[in-house]
Amino acid sequence: MKIDLHVHSSERSGCGKSSDEEQIEAAIKAGLDAMAFTDHSKLIPLARQAELNNKYAPFHIFRGIEVTVNKEDFVILGVGDAELEGTAWTYPDLHSFVRRRKGYIVVAIRSVIIPKCCPR
Fold first, then answer.
1. For an engineered disulfide with 22, which of 3, 18, 95, 108 has Cβ 3.0 to 4.6 Å away?
2. Does pTM surpass 0.90?
3. 8, 39 in Cβ contact below 8 A?
């Protein structure tokens, strides 16, 4: 199974260049089976996620969020708690919060390679 676990949408992130549906259609075209919207400080609403999962099945859309702590970005997966949105976190508090909810934290490393398919 091929999954992109770090996708931003223009509908929720200032750095997102494409809408939810444009991102999903590009992922499907690229041969992916699923993706996770992990917008900056904003979760995809549950109703929107359900709508997109219904429309694009069997492709699957997961929820995540990107949280910034001391200028470092972390992708949080497996936790859909709205408390993640907009809270000023310290890393120990964020780690504890996510761990108690049995989620995952991944450091979001900025890519320095720009694929030919995605010029800036």
1. 18
2. no
3. yes
